[in-house]
């Protein structure tokens, strides 16, 4: 046997095998670096002292928090919300609640920010010094958005109630819900929780909203009526608030004591 020829064939086979391996390596998918975090959150009318984040997409578990604004920059490390834990990946329509100590102002600006969860799992620990739970960054900057928050509102004029029908000029609702009317107690004070009329309103701006009052309600000139915004968070389309239950309670803005945080107003019957 020609050993020189056999050796040459063996070397050639080895070389071809290595070429195949290199080709296989070339065909292997290249590991992609983790994507940076991103967030979509807009100016909004808030419901129940909560900001809704449309989308928070994070490469690892983390947090959504809210910071106060100071001349166009976030106040850190203090936060004015309860930290909201989110999981790796896309998180849709996340509600982040302001904490009970925060004073809210209609039309104020705040900063919504994404933070990592790098310390104790599911325990928010960012203090600006330890390095734990620092903000997610993109191109070296924190992933955050400045937004304007507004209160829901009701505008109404003094009016005559023809056939026990009243018209509310303008309602800005944070969510689909109820606009109800409370009577006065004969001395100009609101009667709660009983109502004398109601209708549904949609999220956003509602104009010239008509409410049919109960037919047994006797109205007098100078009498006060109190329109108030309520949620519709129980059986949809059924008003269920009885003054103590968990469903269809009043819409609120801010942390002042009741009734100063409730969205309502008054007008006089002419």
From TrEMBL:
InterPro entries per UniProt: Slg1/2_DUF7282 (IPR055706)
Protein name from the UniProt record: DUF7282 domain-containing protein
Superkingdom: Bacteria
Region (Disordered): 20-40
Every DUF7282 domain range: 37-149, 152-251
